[in-house]
Amino acid sequence: MSSLTTKKAIVLSFRKLLEKKPVTKITINEIANETNINRQTFYYHFNDITDLITWICTFEFNEKMQKYKDCSWDKQFLEIFNLINEEEKIIDNILHSVSKEIVYNNLCNLIYPTMYEEISEMININIKEKDKIFIVNFYKYAFVSIVLKWIEQGRKQDPKEIIRNIKNIVNGTLNEACKQFSKR
Question: Which of 150, 133, 36, 139 is nearest to 91 (CA)?
Fold first, then answer.
């Protein structure tokens, strides 16, 4: 089995185990047994279960979002909500068992390039790069917080409505913020 194939097999086995129990109840031995590998092979690919979860969030989720990279920011953000719904079991397990920080960091990494590109296109005023980055980070953190609150509240609000609200705020404040930064 190739290294990448083994890694994907470990991930698949971990996902199967997640269907039966929470992250905190899954051991590396169980993952190895489910994958038909020895424990040391697991450690060749991942440091621990948290590293495995981080890999899933970073690489698998990013891979799924690649097909939307040329879409508008609102379409990309809607797809993030869809991905979270699609990956509900693993996201909930991560948030309740391991670390909200893993989900938070991955969302930030997913959102940053989209926000940077969108804001760069919307800004018709010449502002310093550090100021543009500050604005992008502001909106990125706001969006990630909204998504995490949506998850915590049981995913009840329609993501399309959330995106519409965000769009209204962004469209209403971004140009004004840029004007203020350009005066400095």
Answer: 150
